[in-house]
Write a structure and sequence with these properties.
With about 120 residues, the chain is mainly alpha-helical. Among the domains are: about 5-45; about 60-90. It contains four helices and two strands; from the N terminus they run βααβαα. The protein has helices spanning about 15-20, 25-35, 60-80, 80-90; strands at about 5-10, 40-45. Strands 1-2 form a two-stranded parallel sheet. The longest helix has 22 residues, at about 60-80. It is elongated, with a radius of gyration of 23 Å. The mean pLDDT is about 85.
Length: about 120
């Protein structure tokens, strides 16, 4: 950040996000930032090899990392489960596919609970 400016950098594989932010959504983003900071703000793209050095991972990158770790742990538990090991030793074969059941996440509410009328 600099006075009146928010600098954003995108990895090479984030073309969709770059196009969205610096295309049709730029005006909306700048208006929202201006309202938040109480002064005119612009969004500019930071480019170059140093643009992403030392940045924190995005929320999506963190979620992908956590999902990969969860899947690896599930794969390990499945491979070591006594029932599966017995079936494979008796019938032969290998585990070809594990279906992961992802936890259900509630969508965040955009309406404060106090604004929702109660059912009478």
């Amino acid at each position: 950040m600099e006075p009146g400016t928010i600098k954003l950098a995108f990895p090479a594989d984030a073309g969709f996000h770059r196009t969205t932010v610096f295309g049709m959504s730029r005006q909306l983003i700048e208006e929202a930032l201006s309202k938040h900071f109480g002064r005119p703000m612009r969004v500019v793209e930071e480019t170059g090899p140093q643009a992403l050095v030392g940045t924190a991972p995005s929320i999506a990158e963190e979620e992908a990392k956590q999902t990969a770790a969860r899947h690896s742990a599930i794969d390990a538990r499945v491979a070591q489960h006594p029932a599966i090991r017995n079936v494979l030793s008796i019938l032969g074969g290998t585990v070809e596919h594990v279906q992961y059941l992802e936890p259900v996440r509630e969508a965040p509410s955009l309406v404060p609970a106090s604004a929702v009328p109660e059912d009478d």
